[in-house]
Amino acid sequence: MDARNSESGESSTPIVPNGAAMRDDRPGIPQLFTAVPTFNDAASYLAETTSIFTRCFPGILSVLITISEVMVLSYVKLSVIHQVLQGPLTRDSDGLEMLAFLPREAGASAADMNLSSSAINQFNAPAVPGEITRGVAGESSQNSNVLVQSNNTNRNGISIFQGLFEKVRRTVRGSADDIGWLQQSADMPPVEDGTERFTEILDDIRHGLHSLPNTMVYLLVPGLFSNHGPLYFVNTKTSFLKMGLTCHIAKIHSEASVEKNAKEIKDYIEEIYWGSKKRVLLLGHSKGGVDAAASLSMYWDELKDKVAGLALTQSPYGGSPIASDILREGQLGDYVNIRKLMEIIICKVIKGDMQALEDLTYEKRKDFLTKYHLPRELPVVSFHTEASISPAVLATLSRVAHAELPVFAPLSDGQPTTLPVMIPLGAAMAACAQLLQIRYGEKSDGLVTCRDAEVPGSIVVRPKRKLDHAWMVYSSLNDDPSEANASQVCEALLTLLVEVGQRKKHEFARKYE
């Protein structure tokens, strides 16, 4: 097949015709061309479904990343081949065949546009010799304009695929790059393991040896949704009162933002101090620990003479992958409407603030800890656990409230009958812990990973016993009587905190002597 020079007046026939004629001359090419838009559709589908697949099949994480890379590179190479083969083939005066770039037909998609010459070189696509045919000056100018327009469009196409690949990567990775960021930060002080001493104190408590001083006031700070669990911390407070200790549960709006609760806790501490003239020891659970830490970080100049120490139990001090994956774009909340459901529950049903959940994401925690740090002289103990994921926890029921039945004279002695309100929190925590283990390979109590609960510069307690996130504040029907209960664990943590405070006091005294 020849292509004559246009100046000679003879017709120029392209060696590779478009449309149906191509299928006649190049039997292997039609399948290749039809595969190009398919790669585009497949890439979009991959971005939408990756999160679902990763929850079900964690082992394919690295495979999905590799597949997405191959798809993008394959699409680019096929686009280059498509571009080259669509150009007309002519012969120059020396008998060499030359390919020319033709403009796209009307209605062609941006995904099918030609790539720039730099992109061709990058992916080792075959070069196009001469770039334009030998023809009249007008035809050469037209082809040059097409090349410039094609190059601009190709840059946009490459950006689209780069964005697509980045979206796939974010969906697959989720919170994997954020978990444990506190330990990776060079600005954060190291932690000290206090598990052994905690175990000794707990053993003494179980044998009736109690050493918490009554010269302090103990303030328990509850976590998220505690306002809707009437028995939150109740057993611990009752146990402390029986020992003659002054103990309060902070009455804060647990579904409010961290900074709002920090101000309320600050006012609560000042009220207790001015009323009792006793310093306050704080123990916060879950978000309550984050709220309490924020209060001391933001208002330390006003509280340093009124606070003796802080214990954080199962608190997402570094952030929570559950909160982040619900609220982060491209994650779980986008596919099963969890984000919308949480907005309805927090904002409409319990009249809370969505900011309360947002403040527990990694992004918000990083921003907050950049501005506010816990003071170095403050004694801090952090405590985290790992939830059991054995089938036995499916039968675990937690008592979160009690219901009073109407009094019927023939059936009672005039006292209302109460029934416990039981919820399978253990099963829910086990399911979440299994999810975090499968997706991220991280140990957790069901909501907070162990690494994110370790406060920099604190004495860390890492018990071997399997305990979920709800165990610290709600009792269950099948608690093992041979093991310490939640009240005893809280007492041991506060006793350890008192010892840490005394040690720090002596260290600072020697430092300034």
TrEMBL record:
<dbReference type="InterPro" id="IPR029058">
    <property type="entry name" value="AB_hydrolase_fold"/>
</dbReference>
<feature type="region of interest" description="Disordered">
    <location>
        <begin position="1"/>
        <end position="23"/>
    </location>
</feature>
<protein>
    <recommendedName>
        <fullName>Alpha/beta-Hydrolases superfamily protein</fullName>
    </recommendedName>
</protein>
